């Protein structure tokens, strides 16, 4: 950094290196002092500061104005935790919409949904003046039972956490908000020793962390995350012994900076956390965190602690413990981040303002002013005092325009996240097992309302509580669990969360609903009486793995229901449903709970979507996140999805969306076979090919969960599965099985079918089972083997590419070999050559070849057939198809469309079986194909449909590189064992 004169003042520079919070919903004298005297550069707002969108906008604007008038060269970074689900600092029922938690979003199976939710969240925050979001959460939940993170993280699969984390991050950035990954190096596998003064410990080695927990952080860094929060946990394993990660140079400077390569802003854990402040002290912690490599020191609780932190840094600099270069490097990073997300023009005119900013008569015009001081702010006006007309709300103009789309997205997200993990007895929808006159019992735990929810605001209003801070104090005063009826006040608090849920159910079924709460006192006589009375029972749980009384209560109620029979039904247990409204891990692995549903949080929108699922108005499509899905394999393998015939008019757009989501799921380091594909790629429309494509879809939303293309090539009697595509979030749910079985059944019904094949040469998307990596190859081969294919009898095939054709020349040995052969090469174009080439093409029994040649000859302006013949004989020895990317049939060869360069294609080489010099002739055909493509001004060439029987090496020597490799599998139609 080359600091300008405005940063020569070390106090100004150091002020930019702190993030601090304060109590209250208005500017306090303490935070004003920190901004004006100590040049505090970043403020963390929490739920205790925020009441509504209007109040938040006013508060943020007041803070920015104080900084501007105090001479801050750059605006404040205003940070907020807004993870959705149960962690929302800002809630406004009219303007700020609630979205599912991170795990709830992952349950939708859509990274596009994650991106849109993150973007909407950031748009709302930006509209009230917030410019930095403390997210995404990148922790991998490798120890699911005892971790406080719960649904704040995507799950326990590192790659899945990484995909969704990056999608969230991109959504935030797209709306202009700075991002902060957390909690490095991971809070996903902490061990808690008990006391609040004991630091939670990570016992994983660096090698173990690198294989799992660090994967999302590495990917977030590679994709441009702006900041990273380092936790305050200890680390104890071979090779590393750290008391507090954020105070360790080994963790920050070496692991995060040097190993992972992060050069953004590093934020420390709050130095006032008890385990840290009691062991080291805030002042000493500030020095240690700064020297460890942290750029922003977080001190968010007390004014005394914040003053101690500032003093600690100053003393550290004065004593030479902290170098000025360390301060300057951190300042550079902070200023670079601020430049991306804010400016004085934005900070003093937030996007949500519905009125202009007025200033009172303290404006001092300068030569830079572009107006005559008529009440319109420009950055040249300083100092300023803000004045808002009393009768006009602020902070709601932009939010009003965003409200309809955000409301629609919120509803869609929640409806897509609800997950029916099991329904063994087929109790859903409940309307099928309950008559209107029968009673339904809901048993719910006493839990605190989510801070940002209508329930908590309703409680505040009923008890005359004006702010979140007062609410927390009031709630604490009544927090003792009731042991008898005298605790009714707390009962009302807990029950109010699910009261509206019960009302919604009553309205939906037009029947009686019983509702009561349960506590750590277990199943009481009142519960037993209600269970006996009801015709069906629902138990709600919220983090039962950490609140073990919920687990015990639920199991007890399940036992009672098993011993009772539903009225009017012979030998049928009383219907019993368990619904987890937070962590899905409560009973995910307990198959004794026959009907188990997960909502991932208990906001009003989530519970309304749950009601719609319970009574059949919504088909549940959510899926459990991460590896926990594997535990459901036994049950889910029995699912039979409705497979429908493809309808181009109805399904084309949805297939394009599915292809886009699959392309996004492909790691950046790999080239996807689907690059350049669209829904039209799979449609051949050829007279000699019978097409039949199938879909699994959501009939309500029209989204495709799966697609399968099949072709019957009458010329060879071959039935082909060209592709089986399943949406990333819907895998392991038997969708692929259902599509495969329907495809095989349809192909076997074709008259004259002789052979079945995996992989199609027309269209050229998947030439067989993809083998991009050994692990993926083994997994897919095993899956198809289980479906009845003999994968041991496979043939390697691939597609290749050569870039930068302009300097290319044929290898000398290839040219010499061709000179010694009695061969000549020419190109033929036009359908009049079809008859003369038919006999040659039929020397191969490979499906699609004849059709490729017919298409190429029918489009002579953009391609043709290069053929090889003997000098004294017109008999065709070999052929290959050539084309430009403008050829009509090139749409069926998507690799031509995927390349950013002007690309030509060489496809479907056929060498006569009578030719002894197979390799030489193949090289000759391709050599002349390259020359033809170069003459068409192409910069690159795609070589398609290459058999791997010793041909790969010779083509690599010519300059080709493999793009995609496959295992082509075929079998007799009569011997296929279709999986049932």
TrEMBL record:
Signal peptide: none annotated. Gene3D superfamilies: Glycoside hydrolase family 3 C-terminal domain, Glycoside hydrolase, family 3, N-terminal domain. The keyword ATP-binding does not apply. SUPFAM superfamilies: (Trans)glycosidases (SSF51445), Acyl-CoA N-acyltransferases (Nat) (SSF55729). Keywords: Glycoprotein, Glycosidase, Hydrolase. GO terms for molecular function: acyltransferase activity, transferring groups other than amino-acyl groups; hydrolase activity, hydrolyzing O-glycosyl compounds. Residues 686-759 form the N-acetyltransferase domain. GO terms for biological process: carbohydrate metabolic process; peptidoglycan turnover. It comes from the Eukaryota. Transmembrane segments: none annotated. Residues 13-336 form the Glycoside hydrolase family 3 N-terminal domain. Pfam families: Acetyltransf_1 (PF00583), Glyco_hydro_3 (PF00933). The keyword Translocase does not apply. Belongs to the glycosyl hydrolase 3 family. This is Glycoside hydrolase family 3 protein.
